[in-house]
Design a protein that fits this description.
Blueprint (H helix, E strand, L loop, with lengths): L16 H16 L6 E2 L8 E2 L10 E9 L3 H8 L5 H13 L5 E11 L4 H18 L2 E9 L9 E12 L14 E6 L8 H11 L7 E2 L4 E2 H5 L7 H10 L4 E4 L4 H7 L6 E6 L7 H10 L3 H5 L6 E7 L4 H10 L4 E9 L7 E4 L5
Parallel strand pairs: 4-5, 11-14
Antiparallel strand pairs: 1-2, 3-6, 4-6, 7-12, 7-13, 8-9, 10-12, 11-13
Helix pairs in contact: 1-4, 3-4, 5-9, 7-11
EC number: 6.3.3.1
Catalytic activity: 2-formamido-N(1)-(5-O-phospho-beta-D-ribosyl)acetamidine + ATP = 5-amino-1-(5-phospho-beta-D-ribosyl)imidazole + ADP + phosphate + H(+)
Protein name: Phosphoribosylformylglycinamidine cyclo-ligase
Length: 356
Amino acid sequence: MTEKTTGASYAAAGVDIEAGDRAVELMKEWVKKTQRPEVLGGLGGFAGLFDASALKRYERPLLASATDGVGTKVDVARRLGVYDTIGHDLVAMVMDDIVVCGAEPLFMTDYICVGKVHPERVAAIVKGIAEGCVLAGCALVGGETAEHPGLLGPDDFDVAGAGTGVVEYDRLLGADRIRTGDAVIAMASSGLHSNGYSLVRHVLLDQAGMALEQHVDDLGRTLGEELLEPTKIYSLDCMALTRTAEVHAYSHITGGGLAANLARVIPDHLHATVDRSTWAPGAIFDLVGRTGRVEQLELEKTLNMGVGMMAVVPQESVDVALTALADRGVDAWVAGEILDRGDHTEGATLTGSYAS
């Protein structure tokens, strides 16, 4: 009698197509909330469609694009089993890069890679992305969920996204507009945002052995709640500011820290100085530095130190700019100025000591 054998299958290899389909159904309601009138078709097509005729109102439209992820912050989300905030972080990382040049965010796509598709988890991630897109004013036009069994563990995942925006050529912001005497306005971050988590995890979780569920008095909440605080999305705030006041440049403070990111928009013949005494970084920055005995310069080139976005504006626009940001609930202050290069070898430096 011949023994009956079962051939190999995709499911046997660890890929669950039905779970993937279920995830798509669960995320549809959230994606729908992000739709703009220029978006054609629905979720599930091979490509997202955006009606480019909407750009006819521009004389010379420039498309701006960016792509990013949220780094090892996903490990904190995985450990806590919290999946509905990490997508918010993704939108912030992508769209706040786009708005820096003065561009209006238009649409975004995402890529979610998992070891095993848990439909509810994937839908929670997409829910966060959709909510972030609403806050950024852009549409979520599509994405991809990939299941990689054997490469990732059943609970492992990562996220990435790409976005597109548009800006009129003669309204493009950047180094060419910056002048000596301009003021540097800082906008407060909501915490660590989505950079430096390899250092933070190493110091607090690996070295100090702190638990994510542990309540930390200095933070006023658990460590996990602090570490998963969503990255602030500044896109609509920056667009509103540009309409209200003269803005020469923005700088999104991400990996590399404040000085390095600000230097990216400073022309070679000028120099930006930022006075640390104009603000006090949040408690999480002190906790990381103190617990890991991390030197201040190392902290500053890794973490945002309490500033998530900076705007360079002419002095005569400072009051209008601060008022406009305050009206939108953005904590902002004058943190520095633009000087002639002089003997400085770097585009931006921090001076003084942080306020206590």
